[in-house]
Amino acid sequence: MSLQTTYLVNGEWATRRVGIGEILARNREASIPVTTRVTVPTTGLLSRTVVQGPAIQWVLPARIRHQRQNDVVFVGDNFIQIKELVSSGHLEDVITKSDFDAKIVGAKVINTRPELGLEDQLGLGGQTMHDPMLDVVNLAPQILVLVLASKEMIFLYARELRRGLHEFVHARRPLPADVSSLEEYGKNITVDPRSRAMAISATHKFFGIFSLKPPLILQREMKCGPVNPIQEERFFRTDGDILKMEFLYPKASDPDIAILLLLVSRSTGVHAVLYHWNTAQNLRSVRPKIAGGRRLPPEWGAPPILVPLIQSTSFLLITPTIVHIFTDVVEQNNPARKYSLPPRADLESSDLIWTQWTRPMRHGIRNKEFDDIYLCREDGEILYLEIKDGAVARNSVLGFLDCNLDTGFAILDGGFEAGDLFVATGSMSTGGLFIAEPRKPLRCVQRIANWAPALDSVIVRGSMQRNSTASPVEFRTPRPSYDRIFTCSGVGSHRGTIIELRYGLEARIGLVIDQEDAASIVDLWAIPNTSTGATFCLISTPLSSSLISIPVDAAEELYALDEESSGLNLSAPTLAASSTANRLLIQITNVSINLAVLGDESLRFSMKLQGLSERIIAATINSHLSLLATIVRSDDTIQVIVRTLDVNANGIRCDIFAQPLTLTYEPICLTIEEINSRFFLFIGTSEGKLLVVGLDYAQGLVPLIEQNITDMKDQDSTACEHLKLVSALKGEVQTSTLFCGLRGGILVPFNIEREPKDALLGLTQGTPYKLGDTPVRIRGYESDRSMAIVTCGSGIWRLSFIEDDDCMEYKLEKILITDQNNPSRIQGAVDFFSCVDRQRISPPGGLGGSLLCFSENQLFACTLERLPKPVPREIYVPGSPRRMTYSKYLQRLVVAYNSMSHQKDGEYTRCYSRPRLCFVDPDSQPSTPSFVDLNQNRSQPLQPIQSGMPTGASGEKITALFDWNFSSGEHVYHFIIVGTSQLRSTYPGRLIYISARPNPHNPAQITAIVKNIHTFEHPVRAIAAYDPTGLIIAVGDGVRYQSLNPVTKRWQRSATYQLESTPLSISVKEPYVYVLTARHSLCILKIVDSHFELLAQDGTDREGLDLVNLQSETKIVLTSNRGGSIIGFSEIALLPDEKLIKPLFVAHVPHSVIRLTSSHRPYHPGRPETIYGTALDGTVYRFTTLGENEWRLLRFIQNICLGDPVICPYRKRRRMVSEDLTPLITKPESMHVDGDILSRVVEHGIRFLETVMRKNTTSSYTNRSTADSSGRMERFMEFVTPVVGDTENPFAAAISWMEDLLRIEL
Fold this sequence. Notes:
single chain, mainly beta, seven-stranded antiparallel sheet
């Protein structure tokens, strides 16, 4: 008797029959020891989105916060961003909402106050009614409508809370569940011009009509709640695919009619179908009238643009070359009028399509006669159409946007200056904010970054900061930048980009002034000119000062003021300067105090020191309190003198506040602060002392506290250079912290303690920050005491308290300075800076709220964003980059890109796409890459070539890049290895070895020599190094091992292995080779006696994309696969006879990760490892391994919060089960923790976590056993203690630990 068995031979399955005797004989072999299975340590995976994909689907002007706030909503795949058009004409980030947990497939805006819209200017609105009891002015005039892929409608608007925070109010409405998810119900969504009805359709057959509630009812619901805009709904079927859907404008004589137009594709062609009904009647009782069914000519194809016209029941269909105008389509079957667009001589316009349209806001008189339309073509051309009486009266080309446009295009309400303000975004192109002014070319006001599609990415080691081991003091440091992420993007033939993805607060440069005598500048101050809105910049040098006026209008010239026109002392260095609300300009020099009222030469005051030996060595001004303080040195005496300021009809007074106070220490800096209506003078000294003096009108200057700043050996490093008080409202209590910037690069916080009677009780020093080795400078806005700006060396941060009312910690947020005219700008050291205060009444275009900085011989003003976000830095390459790697030896990015060339051949033009290779300095500004010719004679050194020269065969693609370093004896060699693919060629695959090194005469350029070229019968897909002189190469559907003989300099091919599908990624941890295939997941091979042996493979067919090996003792291989799955395998538990490896954990993310790269963060055994994953749409994920204790705590919090409507407001509610309280390792998917959900918990703070855990949940659990009778709180304490230890407040400790784990650092 025998059995048929299946076994694996060289990667192929074979069958044979085995006798029973052979099986029994094997069982009787007692010499074989019993193999025990090794247990793999429990390992979880935490995913976190660190960079959201930049692609924007829709741009919607929508005032969903307040009527006075000119908001624009940017809608992405699964997030929305609210930006506000501020008075300076720029878009400023307000808030981002990304907790939808589903893809957004449609978006529109409905009006809650239609009397503000276009239809009422046309006489369609009728009489508007308001409830006198409602405060309509403070209600949002519009509501955002979103349709999610989870078949649900979301109605959304925002309320502004205290301290600039916002609360979103939403209503949910399910859509029919019997429609397939592939139909994307909601892909087409349109709203009636008067917001009386809304229509939503799938891509095939189904659509629904929703009757909206009247504005009066909506306003009452928004005021009192709950909000539900839908009054009635009705669903319809139509044969065919629904291409477009729009509501048309009704006639002024029949305003109650709603008209819905559908473009439906059927087997007989594209048809225009009309549905119209009376909105005054009940929707369910009315049978909509179907008009027409007009079939469009087949040569039109599927018109990409459908535009409803203001003229009643009319619309446009726009093809690439013709505008088709349909008029009065309900009552008459008039033929369409044609208007041919003027041809362009420089383009074949028929090959390009119009992708978007928008209608500008015009006054009511013009709207009754004309209809103005802007069209945008995919290449960025803007065409203006003026429609009158059903015909095109005028058209003109405004110019080109500097982007390719296919998605978002809108005009902002109200315009800007004297023109129309466009917002344009593309799914694969950088967008921008553009202004179209009469008789002027289009001008880009603000760029909107886009790094999609991200075709490849690399991680370069960043600068790391470490604590000083010589100091006995424990310091905190800003989170070091271990990693710099670079992606390559480009879809056109002219220019691509290398993007460095950074994260922080963007500070956009808007004004640049070159300074010739820059080395002598010691400080600067920005002083607002309240009378004109301009800004004075007072610059101090060691011997003198200068005053510059920066006008509001950028077209005006800057000018310098002298002493006569300013009333200041410009012949001496300035120590402090400021201005008051009543236009009093204050300057303190080393010899005088100068006061002047702007615009009134009769109101001036100057007081000089009397003694020849007297000098002012430090000074401060508090313009809000009208107080100033000076430190005067005379011979051996140092005194503090405080003065009051007053401006009245009799002139300017500068009186002494109280008797001077003599000091025994050497003061360097001082500041006057108000704390709960009491005045205090803080003084920092060179001896590392902090002095506190009370300012009392009755008692004068009262010394209160003398305290050492830090106990350090290096006394010079403790000298206090700057002082700044930061105050915030925590609950109902005002909390204040004094920050000291020390000369040795240390930032020291002192928490201010007060008695119940608001008197200053003491200062408690917190843990200092080590920022660098140069002096720490701190300044802030007098109008905003909740934050300060800190600089040290090349770093600049915003200092503020954490928003959580129960947390007294503060945070340092990195500021990244960008220049629209120089996208590749490298962050340099800011030598000096000043904060320009916002004025209560300031004209548009002023510098209020800006930072005035001096760096690299330039004085520039930059606008600081309020929220941190990804801030890309761009390096241009002359082509479309496809692959890249980083060479440590060259310290260059090696970029493979495609370039296009054209050759005229009679009536035809031949287009050639050839690969090129260039070396890009990641720190260049701008970059000047070296280009490599892949077809050159290998004996000649490579020279930089022009971008138009061919470098590879036409149609050839670079599919693999590898930076290879190998050693032979004492010699080390460096090669760039290029793998190519060229179908229908004699050699479909090539392997090119390039020796590259810096040019000895010009180190900025790279000299390269092609050493060898190997040809293969199949494309080369991946390359990895094996042993000192070997390579593993993926060719076709197999892998090959070849090694270089250092003596003979010849290559030897010694092993091949055929796989079931194409290998896409290879990694090596000798003696094992890990191969990820395109359709059959992971294979682990081992080279034994010059041939490959299969060690293990995944038992499930998966479509692999990339893999990376982790460093831990668990021997985890992390793989990414199509569909967004991230799977971890470990061969540590394999038995010798086993060949199938099982997943250790499985995570699912919204987008497929095309590239996995390990972080450069130092690894320590037992600590988590970090891996970054890049998706094609530009999203960057961070994956962190978790130990068992950390996984149980985080998974427990996630399980609890999945059912919480605050954390996951749009997920389907579910009943909790016992497994939610006790996370079990039941399947690999349960080992995944979603860090995006946990980040929302951190944002809501300590009190929220405690409230959730203390809820009584006994009645809400199902299938609970008697052994699992404890509640949330008991389980939380069980899981949190092993992670954070025994602490007084475990909730605060857990939030702090999670915040540190989830923080975004780039």
